[in-house]
Amino acid sequence: MRRVRFDALIAGAGPAGSVAALLLARAGWSVALVEKSSFPRRKVCGEFVSAAAMPVLEACGLADAFVGAAGPPVMQLGLYAGETMLISPARHFWGRALGREHLDTMLRDAAVLAGARLFQPARLVAAARGGNGYLCDLHDAQHRRQIVANTVIAACGSWNAEGRFAIPRHETAPSDLFAFKAHFHGSRLPPGLMPLLAFPGGYGGMVQSDGGRLSLSCCIRRDTLTAARHRHGGRAAQAVWAHIAATTKGAAQVLEGAVPDGALSVGPIRPGIRLRQRDGIFFTGNIAGEAHPIIAEGIGMAIQSSAVLAGRLITGGPHGRIGADYDVVWRRCFATRIRIAAVFAHLAMRGSTSKACRGIIMRFPGLLDWGARVSGKT
After folding, report:
1. Which residues are within 8 A (CB) of 14 and not within 5 positions of it... i.e. 6 or more apart?
2. Smaller CB count within 10 Å for the chain: N or C?
3. Distance spanning both ends of the chain, measured CA to CA
4. What is the pLDDT of residues 208-229, one digit of tens each?
5. DSSP structure class, residue 295
6. Where are the alpha helices (H) located in the chain, listed in sequence order?
7. Are 116 and 99 in contact (CB under 8 A)?
8. Which of the 8 DSSP states describes residue 12?
9. Whole-number Å distance between alpha carbons of 347 and 345
10. Is 98 helix (H, G, I), strand (E, B) or coil?
11. What is the mean pLDDT of residues 317-343?
């Protein structure tokens, strides 16, 4: 079997993997970009890309294409919780939303145009370290290949990680979170508004995405989902929406008469700070660390963390020193966001504290903007 050598092999062609591949390829690296799924694909992840990630898209030469394809700019933040419907009076540019079927394809194609070689659909089934780099086994429907790579980057996402990149799973618990996402046409969401949804046992958000669609993303606890299915009946997605509509006036009003666009996606979510490097393999995107989606920074953090890693690799130096430096910079950029998101999420899901927080925010609506700033949107 003939072996092909690359400077880097990247597992995962989502936003994190494609941005890393694009930046490395532009710097003259030979890059293998491996993705196990066919595009376009449905993703549970939200679609909002914050203003803080725009400099990376500009560095990738994609800012204009992104703005042209994405939904309208988000200029105001809101809070829908119980009977509360609050909109911050301040106006700032917070970001835009673009469906993952469009964003992922845009970033992947740009990486290929920059010189990365795409293997899709293909699985990285083994990556063994040796004296001459990493010997990587790739399998697809028709071929088995071996690639030798000097550097291996795992950007396969926390939900899709498998094999040596798999995240250890814990025993199921009532507090486990499940993420849901759906699109709607014909919503009543005011242009440029992105409201946070806080409801018993969960939280979520709404934003106008591409093509006039509204994107609704939410997380709900396992025990709350079980109770909602018992109370409202139907499938999990139907029970989730019934629970939100019954407990959150603003969400019910925005989506009254709206038409669902396709099926609702669902998947588990496990926020937390994880590894940036193991056995010399680098981790980027939400497999390295994942914030609660309440701050809508999943895509932004994935894009920015890959820019940080690519910059360290391009700069060069001993492999071990790069890894230590990447970990330090990553924590400085993202660890606080992840911890703040966890606090916000638990406050939103607890009925008593959520009600108290709503009262404070109603008196001081500028706290919505403050929360967006400390969570990394600027």
Report:
1. 35, 43, 104, 107, 155, 156, 157, 285, 302
2. N
3. 50
4. 999 999 999 999 999 999 999 9
5. G
6. 15-26, 54-59, 63-69, 100-114, 222-232, 236-247, 249-254, 298-315, 319-349, 351-363, 366-374
7. no
8. -
9. 5
10. coil
11. 85
Q: Is 95 left (phi over 0), alpha (psi -120 to 50) or beta?
A: left
Q: 281-283 and 289-290 as β-strands: parallel, antiparallel, unpaired?
A: unpaired
pLDDT of 207 strictly over 80:
yes
Q: Which residues contact 263 (CB under 8 A, 6 or more apart)?
A: 42, 182, 237
- CB burial of 229-261 (b: ≥16 within 10 Å; e: otherwise) equals beeeeeebbebbbbbbbebbebbeebbeebeeb
**CA separation (Å) from 32 to 159, 180, 357?**
22, 32, 48
Contact 24, 114 (CB under 8 A): no
Residues whose CB falls within 8 Å of the CB of residue 286, separated by 6 or more in sequence, listed in order: 16, 157, 158, 298, 301, 302
Radius of gyration, alpha carbons of the chain = 21
Q: How many CB atoms lie within 10 A of CB 206?
A: 25
Q: Are 248 and 82 in contact (CB under 8 A)?
A: yes
Q: What is the pTM of this model?
A: 0.91
Contact call for residues 37 and 17 (beta carbons, < 8 A): no
Match 């949107």 to its residue by tokens: 377
pLDDT, residue 370, reads 73
What amino acid is encoded at 363 in this protein?
R
Contact between 22 and 118 (Cβ < 8 Å):
no
Task: Round the average pLDDT of the chain to a whole number and report it.
Answer: 88
- In sequence order, what are the residues at sequence separation of 6 or more whose Cβ sits closer than 8 angstroms to the Cβ of residue 247? 82, 199, 200
Buried b (16+ CB within 10 A) or exposed e, 132-149: ebbebebbeeeeebebbb
